[in-house]
Amino acid sequence: MNTAPAFLIDGAQAVPHSRVDVRALDVDFYAFSSHKLYGPTGIGVLYGREELLQAMPPWQGGGDMIRTVTFAKSTYNDLPWKFEAGTPHISGAVGLGAAIDYVEALGLDAIAAHEQAAATACDGAIDGHSRRTDHRHRGSQGRRRVLHHVGRASARHRHDSRSRRRRHPHRAPLRMPVMDFFGVPATARASFGCYSTSEDVTRLIAAVERVREVFA
């Protein structure tokens, strides 16, 4: 068996904003989650090279992943059923399909333009904060993240009428090394999408200004 390293791309941030051609990427595995694509939670997509999937053993048993079972040996089903043990997430798959249809109907170019407009509005209204992003060169092709040093805000972290969406500062494990590198105890993130409205942008700007007043 070939022991060369395999490469996996996490495309969760890219799929809602850009077209992905796994063959052009020449990648071994490509994965994305449904909820990042405005679909239901608990389901996603994994693409893998056929020869690698054929060589891999199933990671879970049950249901349609078995072809034959004897006391001597078991044989596995063909792809993709080899990795589909038990009852599939039928409702989630239907919901993900509907979400994909929705994004396709809106058009990825239209979504990118909408997100760009929201990002530009923030650029013109928020000055002097720590912003480490360039939406033109992100893998998400238009997704905008605003990172703001909020100091003691982690101790006061809450959901209220001034916050459209806020997350625990350590919820994403890979964020912690970044925070250590820049020497900040917490961050607040704003993520634009096709659902973002001008009211959302206005409230975000007001919230950032409020943070600056309190923790300046």
Total beta strands: 7
Low-confidence stretches: 128-169
Largest sheet: 3 strands, mixed
Helix content: 25-40%
Q: What order do the strands of the largest sheet run in, or round the barrel if closed? A: 1-2-3
The averaged pLDDT comes out at 78
What is the structural class? Answer: alpha+beta
Your description of this structure?
This protein is α+β, with helices and mostly antiparallel strands. The chain has 6 helices and 7 strands. A 3-stranded mixed beta sheet has the order 1-2-3. Helix 4 (108-125) packs parallel to helix 6 (198-215). The longest helix has 18 residues, at 108-125. The protein is elongated, with a radius of gyration of 22 Å.
Brief synopsis:
The protein has 216 residues and is an alpha+beta fold.
Index terms:
about 220 residues; 3-stranded mixed sheet; alpha+beta; single chain
Helix-strand layout with pairing:
Layout: E1 8-10, H1 22-25, E2 29-33, E3 44-48, H2 50-55, E4 66-69, E5 74-76, H3 90-106, H4 108-125, E6 148-149, H5 175-182, E7 187-188, H6 198-215
Parallel strand pairs: 1-2
Antiparallel strand pairs: 2-3, 4-5, 6-7
